[in-house]
Every structure is written in structure tokens, then in C-alpha cells.
Design brief:
InterPro entries: Aminotrans_3 (IPR005814), Aminotrans_3_PPA_site (IPR049704), PyrdxlP-dep_Trfase (IPR015424), PyrdxlP-dep_Trfase_major (IPR015421), PyrdxlP-dep_Trfase_small (IPR015422). Its cofactor is pyridoxal 5'-phosphate. It comes from Bradyrhizobium sp. LLZ17. Belongs to the class-III pyridoxal-phosphate-dependent aminotransferase family. The protein has 2 domains: 4-86 and 340-445, Alpha-Beta Complex (Aspartate Aminotransferase, domain 1), CATH 3.90.1150.10; 88-337, Type I PLP-dependent aspartate aminotransferase-like (Major domain) (Aspartate Aminotransferase, domain 2), CATH 3.40.640.10. Helices cover 37% and strands 15% of the residues. It is built from 14 helices and 14 strands. It has helices spanning 4-15, 23-32, 88-100, 109-121, 134-149, 210-217, 243-254, 274-278, 304-307, 324-337, 340-363, 390-393, 398-409, 429-445, and strands spanning 55-59, 62-65, 70-73, 127-131, 153-157, 202-205, 222-227, 257-262, 284-287, 298-302, 368-373, 376-381, 413-414, 420-422. The strands form 3 sheets. It has a 7-stranded mixed β-sheet with strand order 4-10-9-8-7-5-6, sandwiched between helices. It is globular.
Length: 446
């Protein structure tokens, strides 16, 4: 195995520049691990290559880490920073609210304005309730759907993620030797300590297979079908033509509620989310991430006759729900995203980045597939066709992809190791050019 000096010289030979180092991040992460398991406060932040980073500040499309490295960022806080890091309008709105107060255990004009903006932008949203996280919003939506339908069963899909609670953290990333037959998948828990009884009413199916959904719904005992309308967390997989429409029709026919988990796609792929982009309206939708530019806000939205059950005995609460500072961020963010030009620019630049990455890898004879939507897409190595479901997505060479993202990071580009690339309004043409140039060098290295 090459030593560190050999690797540094190899990288410099390829690019003409010394590779970035991350020694201070490594040191601080080791210190943090004395007080916090793995040094992180979310299990999904552990294990970055060559190390989880310690960030000093964010500026537009850039992050500056503890070593002083200036990195083009495609993590974007795992999705929320759609306006880039430190957007001026959001910071100004939050600063103004801070002068008024932090938390009241009462209602504010900001949350009323945020609710109106949200409902005017999202097709399914006649009503909305804000929460503090996507996990909470999912649980509220499940409870609501069971109350409305009087049924207990949930259908969810392999590879889809809906938060870390015991009743829904099933078959999110199951090993292929445990998944069982495709027509009747085995429900596989994601975490040690997960209550097996909590999943007794959770049915797992492969995504993008309408016939299997129709067959299970025909039993008449399913309260809700819960899905990411684009399979964001495992492969950037788009719905096949007619799939969303078919599930929508089957849910109506069988008295089941359709729930879109738009925590990732909401206000990212279009102002009204994936439901707006694809023209398929669910009964309930869950939003988060991009709705508040990094402040802890999520939402449950849907038809009035459904959401109004929150006023008729369905309990959903939270001390920090719709807190004034977060609501000021929502209002500022949604006002920015109401401009169609924001999405048009991200669409154009995202498409150019997708093609640039594909060409960079092709030139280096690295097989790859780029799939998804321009504001949020997935890059997989050693594949020849876009995957249609989780089982196909697992064929990607994850180890080689991590080598690629590590090579990119040493050239100043931070991309998620799981394959997802997220665009912001601040990733301009010069940033895209620099990213493609780094990708060309990284592709040659691997």
C-alpha cells in the first residue's frame, strides 16, 4: 500500500497542485469522541472519508473547514441549504426576529404568514402544521392517516427513508442476503435495539412495481402508502412513467391515503415539490430541509378534511414547533423560492454538472450512471443503466465511489459518499466549471 507521501506526490502529479489535508479536522474529531459517541450527534454524520469534517463557516456554495480548506459544497447540510450557506435575506429576517424574542409558547404573525405561503405553493396543502424534524412529521402523518381510515397497516418501500423511529426504520438499507423474494420482501430492521413488534403493521415492497402495490391494497386493510416520490436516499431513482399516477388511483379505489415524503424533494425540485413537478397530488405530504434554509423546520400538509383531525382528537405537539425564529426563516426562504428564476438557474447548471461528471468519468474509462433531477441527482460507478429500485441500486461500486469522493475532497469539492449531489442557487457557472475540472482529475486518479 502506498504511504501518505507517495499518495500526495501522485495527486500532485495529476493536478499540478498539492492535495488538501484534513489533519485539524481529524484532531478535533478525536477530541470530540471523548464526550460524544463517534464525535457526532447524528449517526449519519459518522464515517466520512478521509475523516468527518469540522466546519468553521459557510459562504455561498463554499465551506471553510478547520484546516482552512475552502471547499465547494454539494452536501448542503444534507439538503436544507438550497439558497447556499448564509443567505442574506434569511439572516436578516432571523436577526430581526431575535430582537423581538426567541420563544413564546404562543402564536406569531410569522407562523401565520409562513403557513399561508406554504399552502399557496404546495398543491396538496390546504392545511399545514409545522414540526421540528422530518422524523416527527412522518409520525404525525402516520397517526393522522390511521385516525382517518380506521386502519393500521402501512406500506413503505425498500430503500426509502422516513426517519429513525422503530415503526418505520425498516428495509431502509437492507443487505441483499436478507431481503427475501422480490414479490414478498422480508422486513429488515436498520438498527440494533429496534423493537420488532413496532414493525408488525409495516409492509415492505419494492418501489416502482405498481402491480405489487395494487395487489396488497386490494386487501382493504392499509391505512397509508408512504413513499419518497423520487427515491432520494438510495440511488436518485425516478418513478417509472405511470407509477405515481397508478399508485394514486389505487389508493383512491381502496380507501387508502397516499403520503409523499418530500423532506428531500420539497422546495428543491420545484417550488411545490415533486408533486408539483410530476403533477400527482398526494393526500398528505411531509416537508423539511429546504423549507427553512437550515433552521429546524419540517411540516405535515394535506387536504383540509384530513388535517383538521388535528383539531378533533389527533394529538401532535412540540415545544419548538413553529418557533418564531424558525418561522422567520421559512418566510424569507419561501419568498426567495417563489421566484421561478431560482429553479431555472439550478436546472440549467445542474444539467451541465450532470453531463460534465458523466463525461469526466467516461474519459477516464470509469463506467457511471448519472440519474435523478438537476437540483438533486445521483452518481453511481460501475453501472451501465439507471436503477429502477433499491435492489438494482445496490449493484453500484460503493467502495470505488468513496475513493472518487475522497479524491474530489482533496481537490476542494465535497460530495456525499452515498452518491447524492445537491445544488443550490449559489452554485454558479464558475463553480460548476471548477467542479468538473476537479472531477476530471479525480476520475483519472481512481
Amino acid at each position: 500500500m502506498a504511504n501518505r507521501g507517495d499518495l500526495a506526490r501522485r495527486l500532485e502529479d495529476i493536478s499540478g497542485r498539492a492535495p488538501l489535508e484534513f489533519d485539524e479536522s481529524k484532531r478535533r474529531m478525536a477530541e470530540a469522541a471523548r464526550w460524544t459517541p463517534e464525535g457526532v450527534h447524528s449517526s449519519f454524520r459518522a464515517g466520512g472519508s478521509p475523516t468527518p469534517l469540522v466546519i468553521e463557516r459557510g459562504e455561498g456554495p463554499y465551506l471553510i473547514d478547520a484546516d482552512g480548506n475552502r471547499l465547494i459544497d454539494y452536501y448542503l447540510g444534507l439538503g436544507p441549504m438550497i439558497l447556499g450557506h448564509s443567505p442574506p435575506s434569511v439572516k436578516a429576517a432571523v436577526a430581526e426576529q431575535l430582537e423581538r424574542g426567541i420563544l413564546y409558547a404562543g402564536q406569531t404573525d410569522a407562523e401565520i404568514e409562513a403557513g399561508e405561503l406554504f399552502c399557496r405553493m404546495v398543491p396538496c396543502a390546504a392545511r399545514v402544521r409545522f414540526t421540528s424534524s422530518g422524523t416527527e412529521a412522518v409520525q404525525a402523518a402516520i397517526r393522522l392517516a390511521r385516525a382517518v381510515t380506521g386502519r393500521s397497516f402501512i406500506i413503505k418501500f425498500e430503500g426509502h427513508y422516513h426517519g429513525w423511529c422503530d415503526n418505520i426504520l425498516w428495509s431502509n438499507a437492507p443487505p441483499l442476503d436478507q431481503v427475501g423474494p422480490r414479490e414478498a420482501p422480508t422486513r429488515v430492521g436498520r438498527s440494533r435495539g429496534q423493537d420488532p413488534e413496532a414493525g408488525e403493521h409495516t409492509v415492505v415492497l419494492p418501489w416502482n412495481d405498481l402491480a405489487l402495490v395494487e395487489r396488497r391494497l386490494a386487501a382493504g386493510d392499509v391505512a397509508l402508502v408512504l413513499m419518497e416520490p423520487v427515491m432520494c436516499n438510495s440511488g436518485g431513482i425516478l418513478p417509472v412513467p405511470g407509477y405515481l399516477e397508478g399508485v394514486r388511483e389505487s389508493c383512491i379505489k381502496n380507501g387508502t391515503l397516499l403520503i409523499f415524503d418530500e423532506v428531500v424533494t420539497g422546495f428543491r425540485v420545484a417550488a411545490g415539490g415533486a408533486q408539483s413537478r410530476f403533477g400527482v397530488t398526494p393526500d398528505i405530504a411531509i416537508f423539511g430541509k429546504a423549507v427553512a434554509s437550515g433552521f429546524p423546520v419540517a411540516a405535515v400538509a394535506g387536504r383540509a378534511e384530513i388535517l383538521d383531525h388535528f383539531a378533533r382528537g389527533v394529538i401532535q405537539g412540540g415545544t419548538y414547533n413553529a418557533n418564531p425564529i424558525a418561522m422567520a426563516a421559512v418566510v424569507a426562504t419561501l419568498n426567495e423560492l417563489a421566484d421561478p428564476g431560482v429553479y431555472e438557474a439550478m436546472e440549467r447548471r445542474g444539467r451541465r454538472l450532470m453531463e460534465g461528471l458523466r463525461q469526466a468519468l467516461q474519459a477516464a474509462n470509469v463506467p457511471s450512471v448519472v440519474s435523478g433531477l438537476p437540483q438533486m441527482f445521483n452518481l453511481a460507478l460501475d453501472m451501465s443503466e439507471p436503477p429502477r429500485d433499491y435492489r438494482e441500486a445496490t449493484k453500484a461500486n460503493k467502495k470505488r465511489y468513496v475513493a472518487f469522493t475522497t479524491a474530489l475532497l482533496r481537490r476542494g469539492v465535497r460530495a456525499l459518499e452515498r452518491g447524492t449531489w445537491l445544488m443550490s442557487s449559489e452554485h454558479d457557472d464558475a463553480v460548476v466549471d471548477a467542479t468538473i475540472a476537479a472531477a476530471e482529475e479525480a476520475a483519472r486518479e481512481i
